[in-house]
Structure formats: structure tokens, C-alpha cells
Specification:
This protein has 196 residues and is α+β, with helices and mostly antiparallel strands. The chain contains 3 helices and 8 strands; from the N terminus they run βααββαβββββ.
Length: 196
């Protein structure tokens, strides 16, 4: 068995054009707080404890915004604003694509009430500000209890345990931020699963 010399990985060049996310007519909601810095082709510095702390605050702000919006009467018009046409969503194994897919899913769902039990956030180096991997666990109730119904309640009115994972990506179509300003993110990928 002969071994071939390994090829070096291609290095980014300063002349490469950045990939931009196409803006939609919908305004992006501010999701997370980060200090902005100029993107560079230089090796990234390791994440600091300050980066982790900022990411955690950003995740807290995001999960509050997301679930308050999801549980609101205006969710059909407001929740899709957190996504882009390139976003992907998987709900209990069923895939949906982009803003239209999110609207399709939400339009089929009964009213809901989410109760977040825990969340975590991991900044993903490679962009400035970094993308965020956000994981959330909690309980959700779909539908409203009917007081006129017999004591046996429908399954959709029972609390269910869920786990949801988001990949938040800096929104390049948003106006630039300055150090300490609110960074603007959108949901690039979203995976929801009932776990109990």
C-alpha cells in the first residue's frame, strides 16, 4: 500500500468575496448581544471566559424572545422573521425549509405555552461575531384545557418534555454593529424533538 503525500489545506485569501445571506422583506429581530470585530483571515484567538459569558447572555436573550414570540397570538407573522429562506427546521423528524416552511408548520400548530427548564450556549469560532449553538430543554403544552370537557384530558393539553437545538448565525444583511452593541442573528438551523 503506497502512501501519497498529504495535500495542504487551502488557505483563505484576502481577495475572496464574503458570502452574504440574501435579505428578505422581513426585518430581522435582534437576537443576541456581541461585540463586533472586523473579520480576518488570521488564525482566531481561542475563546475566552468573557466570550462564553457574552454567549450565555445572548442565549438567554434569544430563548426568551423565541419562546415569547412562539407562544404569542402574533406568532404566525413574527416567528418567521427569526429565520431566512436558507434556514432549515426539523420538527420531530419532519423537515421544513426556510421562512415558508416555518409558516407552514406554525399555521398547523395549536396554541402553546413553553416553560424553559434549562439552556446552554456554545460560541462557534470562525466568524466575528461567532455563530452560536444554543440548546434548550423544557416543557410545552399545546392547546388549551377545556373546562367543559370530562376529567380525561386530551393528549395535546398535557405538558410534554422537549429539547430544541438552534444554530444562530450572524446576519450579514443587518447594519454593522459597534463594540458592545446588540448583534443581529438569524436561525440557520433548528431541530425540535419531544423527549418525554
Amino acid at each position: 500500500m503506497s502512501s501519497q503525500p498529504s495535500q495542504p489545506l487551502p488557505q483563505p485569501t484576502t481577495s475572496a468575496a464574503p458570502v452574504l445571506i440574501a435579505a428578505t422583506n422581513q426585518a430581522a429581530a435582534p437576537v443576541a448581544t456581541f461585540s463586533a470585530e472586523v473579520a480576518s483571515t488570521q488564525p482566531r484567538a481561542p475563546l475566552t471566559s468573557n466570550d462564553i459569558e457574552i454567549a450565555t447572555r445572548a442565549a438567554d436573550q434569544f430563548q426568551r424572545l423565541y419562546y415569547n414570540t412562539y407562544d404569542s397570538k402574533t406568532r404566525l407573522s413574527e416567528l418567521p422573521k427569526l429565520y431566512r429562506p436558507t434556514s432549515s427546521l426539523t420538527w420531530n423528524g419532519k423537515p421544513y425549509q426556510g421562512v415558508d416552511g416555518v409558516q407552514d408548520l406554525i399555521s398547523q400548530m395549536p396554541v402553546s405555552k413553553h416553560e424553559v427548564q434549562s439552556f446552554d450556549c456554545h460560541p462557534i469560532p470562525g466568524t466575528s461575531p461567532p455563530s452560536l449553538l444554543v440548546t434548550v430543554s423544557g416543557n410545552v403544552v399545546h392547546g388549551r384545557p377545556n373546562p367543559n370537557q370530562a376529567k380525561k384530558r386530551a393528549i395535546d393539553e398535557q405538558p410534554r418534555v422537549f429539547h430544541q437545538t438552534f444554530m444562530l448565525v450572524p446576519d450579514s444583511a443587518a447594519p454593522p454593529t459597534k463594540a458592545g452593541e446588540v448583534g443581529k442573528y438569524y436561525i440557520s438551523a433548528d431541530a425540535f424533538r419531544f423527549v418525554g
